[in-house]
Design brief:
11 strands; seven-stranded mixed sheet; 385 residues; alpha/beta
């Protein structure tokens, strides 16, 4: 038995479990084992010390590591211990410290969102919302939670008929379509994903909304010179692609197109503390992705005269959203494996399960920050519930 591996995993996983290898089975920890890890191939000390998440994640993708219990349930038991994971930032410098250039970030965004609309349609809900839902009732379906989320955001923005709304990172456009239908606003969505752009553009024409909505293939950095101006700006799940060091630039670009007194709602995955990011996620899921802490965004807002009006955490809502996505994904996982290979299929299952567990353990959070450009005394004095 690889004693280093047994001791390493024992320190990482705070519950008892069995470790099964070709050499036999060993009980790690004290008490009744919660699950069994079967290793068909040894994981080297070097790999674990270079990146715990890469070593374990790749072993799972290749089926070198198997579990006798649901993946999410196992991850939920120990991902709260991620601070104990090893990451050799020197050896992984190119992976961890990614470029903030427009060209590279465009390629990184497209590598994830342009996998194909057909792929996302298999397991997202009918709104094609790829961000945290809002479960107002225990009985809410994923679809209802996504509608709730959009309605929650639109209510916070205090929209009125004829207003203009910009959505930075508009995805497949559900938020803007609902804003136009419910409030009669004029909306512009920008995205770097060609798949999302073409689908949203097609929907606008199909639903006869060309007089109210427009979608552009556009980088947020081009807003400053666009000549555009808006009463309201929203950005949902896009800040994670901006990169540490560019947050001020992002806010400057928002400021350049938001009218005085206008409202900006920023919805993004956040962290308690600043962190360079997870190597496995960066290599396989979100190249160049970076999760800002709440405080590093909040502290920048005064530089652009953004007044913070409301901050809300939806952490547990994202845990439930991810579990709903994973339930849907399992229904089509065999089909995904046939189309894209078993490693890809297991990779995405690991991604959904791991994210759900990290939200549940508070490793990451989801915050909505509502702010005004300068003082706005015309808004209701009570918050949106």
């Amino acid at each position: 038995m690889n004693s280093f591996l047994a001791n390493y995993l024992g320190e990482l996983i705070p519950v008892a479990f069995r470790l099964k290898t070709e050499e036999g089975t060993q009980l790690i920890g004290k008490g009744e084992p919660e699950f069994t890890v079967t290793l068909k191939k040894d994981i080297s000390k070097k790999d674990l010390m270079t990146s715990t998440s890469l070593a374990l994640g790749e072993a799972y993708m290749r089926r070198d590591l198997e579990l006798d219990r649901d993946l999410y349930e196992v991850l939920d038991l120990f991902l709260g211990q991620m601070s104990k994971f090893h990451t050799d930032t020197s050896a992984l410098k190119k992976l961890i410290q990614t470029s903030r250039s427009k060209k590279n970030q465009s390629q990184e965004v497209r590598s994830h969102y342009d996998i194909g609309n057909d792929f996302y349609e298999k397991w997202l809900d009918e709104t094609m919302s790829y961000s945290c839902g809002y479960f107002k009732e225990d009985t809410d379906t994923l679809y209802q939670a996504q509608v709730n989320k959009v309605d929650h955001i639109l209510a916070k923005l205090h929209l009125e008929k004829g207003m203009s709304l910009l959505d930075i990172g508009c995805g497949w456009g559900y938020l803007l379509k609902r804003a136009a239908k419910q409030y009669g606003v004029h909306g512009v969505g920008i995205t770097l994903s060609e798949e999302q752009y073409h689908k949203f553009k097609e929907d606008i024409e199909k639903e006869g909304m060309s007089d109210l909505l427009e979608v552009r293939l556009m980088d947020y950095r081009d807003l400053e010179k666009s000549g555009l101006s808006f009463d309201r700006v929203v950005s949902v799940g896009m800040l994670e692609h901006v990169g540490r060091g560019n947050y001020g630039l992002f806010l400057k670009c928002v400021d350049s197109v938001l009218k005085p007194g206008g409202l900006f709602l920023l919805h993004y995955i956040s962290a308690l503390e600043e962190h360079p990011g997870d190597a496995w996620i960066k290599k396989y899921i979100f190249p160049g992705g970076m999760i800002p802490s709440l405080r590093e965004i909040i502290q920048l807002l005064p530089e652009y005269r953004f007044y913070t009006l409301d901050v809300e955490s939806l952490r547990r809502h994202y845990n439930r959203t991810l579990l709903c996505w994973r339930e849907n994904y399992h229904k089509c996982m065999d089909e995904v494996a046939r189309e894209k290979g078993e490693e890809f299929a297991r990779m995405w299952d690991l991604y959904l399960a791991a994210c759900a567990a990290t939200f549940h353990n508070g490793v990451i959070d989801l915050h909505q920050i509502l702010m005004s450009k300068g003082v706005n005394n015309d808004l209701p004095m009570t918050r949106v519930v």
